[in-house]
Amino acid sequence: MQENEVNTFIHSLEKLIELKPCIEKLKKFIHHTNAIPSIHLQVNDILKNIEKIQTQPFLLLQLQRLAETEKLSSDPFKHQQQQFKEILADYDLQVSTASKLSIDPHFKMDRYNSAIAKYQQWLLDLLFLLYCFNFNKSALTTYFIESYVIFMHDIYQAHVTTKISLRDQASINGIVLAEIPRNTMVNVYGNTINDYWLKVSVDLDGIETEGYVQAIYLKKK
User: Fold this and answer.
1) CA distances for 47 relative to 41, 61, 96, 216, angstroms
2) Which of 5, 83, 85, 103 could covalently link to 115 via disulfide, CB atoms 3.0 to 4.6 Å apart?
3) Closest to 179 (Cα-Cα) out of 162, 197, 169, 166
């Protein structure tokens, strides 16, 4: 799948009425926590799970049959998500050690009893949406999945207008993680912290680093 095809596909997702409730649920989940691991870690976790599923013939066959059955359904989304989860009920989603270290152990949700379980649920929902469109196809590339995760996070690019500090908290009292040089491009998370601070990720010497910067020093691309 070419870059322009991926971009067209990603930006057309919200127009699909049958998927909108699921997409909005996932975006709401993302917007209500700052404990989500980095984009890079999420992409690796998704790829790892896809690769593992594709090495299990019986599991793969079940998912393929589900995909073919739903193509004939008059309401393709109504039962598909539940059936997808039932097929993967005994499948333990793989979460990287790095991701586990990035998840806030104190963040909990009523329905899930731990931050790890919540992150696994997020991965499962995202895998379902990916398989809705690209089941068992070569289009499930790193670029496609990265673009999809970025879309779900409402991420956009911006550059810094002057040298600024990247902090571990949305406060001038936060620990300085790094200094970001002027004109550096950063990825800005759409879930706004407040009027003064934004969560960003930035590549510094080949290492993706997340933190918070003062919004006044960012200019949207």
Assistant:
1) 10, 19, 11, 36
2) 103
3) 166
pLDDT in tens, 98-137: 777 777 665 555 455 577 777 888 888 888 887 776 655 6
- Which amino acid, residue 34? N
As to burial, measured by CB atoms within 10 angstroms (0-12 exposed, 13-18 middle, 19+ buried), residue 190 is middle
Residue 76 tokens, joined: 């393709």
Cα 74 to chain centroid, rounded = 29
**pTM exceeding 0.85:** no
Report the alpha-carbon distance of residue 43 to residue 147 in Å, rounded. Answer: 9
Buried b (16+ CB within 10 A) or exposed e, 52-61: ebeeeeebee
* Separation of alpha carbons 24 and 210, rounded Å: 24
d(CA 130, CA 93): 15
